[in-house]
Amino acid sequence: YCGYTYCPDICPTELTIIAETLDRLGDLRKRFRVIMVSVDPERDTPEVLKEYMANFGPEFIGLTGTPEQVRKMARLWRAYYRKVPDENGEGYSMDHSAVTYPLDENGKYLRHFAYGTPPERMAKGIVEAIRRTQGGTKAQEAGDIAALYVLEQEASELFGEQEQVAYYANILELALENLTDALGSARRMKMDEVQDFATLRALYEYAIEHYSAGKATDAAALFEILAGLTEDARFSDAMRRHQQCAERLPDFEQFLDDAADLDATQRNGTFYISAFTRAENDACEENGE
């Protein structure tokens, strides 16, 4: 948390909320220390900070530094602050953002809370974030790509974009490992096997990501691999059609507009585009595809 000891209302209110949050964490409380980095290093000496933070509990610690160190910290955490002179010109206050960032024991971001978040909601959010983070680590270690997918969906409701990207990176890493194993053993994946299903989905999303980024040639190669990776004829046929479209329609938006039947795909309930427009079907027939 970034604040300052001369703050008349926001900082003492938020620090009191954090103290009440700790009271609701039970045994987890001992795992946390509350750090307020002062955005007012001119007045907030270490001695001032120590006395001020003691008002909220033994876990509360105040940190300060040089003005340049404070600026670097603020940039890192995207915190805002500026000095506001008093009207009489004799003093000043600090205008600043008031966001609380819980971190795990390794200093990894868990999530953030806006100013005024009730302590019961903050405590619940911290517990859920810890559970999901630990669950993701266990799923990664166990090679459980399906579990990672479930956690990713839940994390989208709690975490910021950076954490969601990290979840997806873990999913993709496992999917590529599973792909290597399948190709090495000439094993065909099965749609009704949960780990295979999750792997195929991740690899399909990876191929679509390439296609949408303008890398149609790379996408076509990935679709070709996917077409031969499973025993599911419907999926294989759809991947061959994707490959043909990527080779013929390098623009992804044109593929969506002219070739993909998204309404029919939604009715089919598939994670991949499984239906195509009449115009696309006619074009494939004309080209002998």
The Cα radius of gyration reads: 26 Å
Number of E-state strands: 5
Question: What summary fits the major beta sheet?
Answer: 3 strands, parallel
Which band does the percent of strand residues land in? 5-15%
Descriptive overview:
Helix content is about 55%, strand content about 5%. The protein is built from 12 helices and 5 strands. It has helices spanning about 10-25, 45-55, 65-75, 120-140, 145-155, 160-185, 195-210, 215-225, 235-250, 250-260, 260-270, 280-285, and strands at about 1-5, 35-40, 60-65, 80-85, 90-95. Helix 4 (about 120-140) runs antiparallel to helix 5, helix 5 (about 145-155) packs antiparallel against helix 6 (about 160-185) and helix 8 runs antiparallel to helix 9 (about 235-250). The N and C termini lie far apart (about 60 Å). The model has no long low-confidence stretch (mean pLDDT about 85).
Summarize the structure.
The chain is mostly helical. The chain has helices spanning 10-23, 46-53, 67-76, 119-142, 145-155, 161-185, 194-212, 216-227, 233-248, 252-259, 262-268, 278-286; strands spanning 2-3, 34-38, 60-63, 81-85, 92-96. The protein has twelve helices and five strands.
Strand and helix map with partners:
Layout (H helix, E strand, L loop, with lengths): L1 E2 L6 H14 L10 E5 L7 H8 L6 E4 L3 H10 L4 E5 L6 E5 L22 H24 L2 H11 L5 H25 L8 H19 L3 H12 L5 H16 L3 H8 L2 H7 L9 H9 L3
Parallel strand pairs: 1-2, 2-3
Antiparallel strand pairs: 4-5
